[in-house]
Amino acid sequence: MNAFEFVRASTVAEAIAAGSSPGAAFLAGGTNLVDLMKGAVSRPPKLVDIGSVEGLDAIETRPDGAVRIGALVANSELARGPFAARFPLIAEAVLSGASPQLRNAATVGGNLMQRTRCAYFFDAASACNKRTPGAGCDAIGGEARTQAILGWSEHCVATHPSDLCVALAALSAIVEIDGPSGRREIPINSFYRLPGDTPERESELAQGELIVAVRLPAGAAAFAGHSRYVKARDRISYAFALASCAAALRLENGLITEASIALGGVAAKPWRAEAAEAALAGAKPEDAAFTAAAAVALADAKPSGDNAFKIELARRVVVRALRLAAAGTPKSMPALPASPFGDISG
Amino acid sequence: MRGAISLTINGLARQIALDDPRVTLLDLLRERLGLPGAKKGCDRGQCGACTVILDGQRINSCLKLAATCDGANVLTIEGLAHGEKLHAVQAAFIAHDAFQCGFCTPGQILSAVAFLEEGGDWRDPERIREGMSGNLCRCGAYAGIVAAVQDAGRRLEAETRKDVA
């Protein structure tokens, strides 16, 4: 690990001031950043510890019905109590990721800011445009199992590893930011950048800008009765997604009035599938409609190497998630959250 | 005092000088405080051998910088028993042969203690396996571990019932 200056901030203003110097990084749970520093993948000259910054650790419902999740709320908190009952999609996505120990330490803001798990990004001996702009990409032509099939470029094929963010994308969450130029907010579906020719720039955040909260709009709770997260991976637990899908439906009189679909493990960002959602509006919640919507969701997919199987896998994961969502959110969390092998009879 | 933190470790309040912010909680415990119960397996948050309970929550101490733990309460395997009386999870691990080499065992035990305190459903082996998924055992003692967690869950619930009655 590189030597670094360590600064503890106790207010947002202190954190922003300390985090504005070139290369400075915010440290919260540390589950991703400390790991990256141990591998010399990240070498920040300064760490700003925001773990005890006041006012960022609450979940609150605002008068308009929106729910504001403080950036320092632990991932595990999102799978408990009334919040989980109101947003079961988020709870299932969270519980399908990492391990209980990691979920306790990891924060919501940190989850949004985690880096890709691309093995070439993690391996200092491999060329990586994300780590060293202009160095090239050894992932292209390499092991492609975890790499992107949507939105990738010839400069980077890495995927975003979060499960939580896929659920947040489906629920149209808004990222609240504070920074040297003041406060602003960005919808999560505009927060991440596709790699293009600048894969080192992963989000719209500027140096010194801090995520202070993630907000769920008032309408997000309306999906609670019909929302599921499904995740296909190489192990049944404690593994990153090969392809995952957050599916949320509103049903009235036997028809779909609103659908929301986001995919994980397939792109540099949680991939919202708006055209597929439009294809479902007004449809009967049946396999024919789900299959057609899944085809639309993956219409632009292209293998980035030897990973064409992921296109069909993702299609089937979308169908499975929609089928489960239509059947209704289960009363209690399944023993294996997000498992594609659960009971599908509904 | 610059670079100092206060920690309560296994019930004992301590002031600890920190000369380097790179020191993890795991290294602090093992190398500087004479508490080698938490183990360094992968050192990257993947194996769970370093699991400790920090402010009531199980975490991987290898990914936690000690400098960020000022004021925290830490429980390690060394502080789990009451004198000679083993914690129910410790006794169950022995009774069910829930280890072979023992390297992952302190982490497994603390993770199981936390799983039960979180209200984890010990009646369902599948939920135990999922709840213990952050702790790897290279000897493959998983069958014994699941049996031990079930047994400890049963005993702790019976004790709670007795206390209430």
Write the layout of secondary structure elements.
The complex is a heterodimer of chains A (346) and B (165).
Chain A: E1 5-8, H1 12-19, E2 25-27, H2 33-38, E3 46-49, E4 59-61, E5 67-70, H3 81-86, H4 88-95, H5 100-105, H6 108-113, H7 119-122, H8 164-170, E6 174-178, E7 184-187, H9 188-191, E8 210-216, E9 227-232, E10 243-252, E11 255-264, E12 271-272, H10 274-280, H11 287-297, H12 309-327
Parallel strand pairs in A: 1-3, 2-3
Antiparallel strand pairs in A: 4-5, 5-8, 6-7, 6-8, 9-10, 10-11, 11-12
Chain B: E1 4-9, E2 12-17, H1 25-32, E3 51-54, E4 57-60, E5 73-75, H2 88-95, H3 105-117, H4 125-131, H5 142-164
Helix pairs in contact in B: 2-5
Characterise the protein shown here:
The complex is a heterodimer of chains A (346) and B (165). Chain A starts with a strand and ends in a 19-residue tail after the last helix. Chain A is of the alpha+beta class. Among the domains of chain A are: 5-52, Uridine Diphospho-n-acetylenolpyruvylglucosamine Reductase, domain 2, CATH 3.30.43.10; 225-327, Enolase-like, domain 1, CATH 3.30.390. Chain A has 12 helices and 12 strands. In chain A, α4 packs antiparallel against α8 (164-170) and α11 packs across α12. By secondary structure, chain B is of the alpha+beta class. In chain B, 36% of the residues lie in helices and 14% in strands. Chain B is built from 5 helices and 5 strands. In chain B, strands 2-1-5-3-4 form a 5-stranded mixed β-sheet, with helices on one face. In chain B, α2 (88-95) packs across α5 (142-164). The interface between A and B is medium-sized, with 31 and 31 residues.
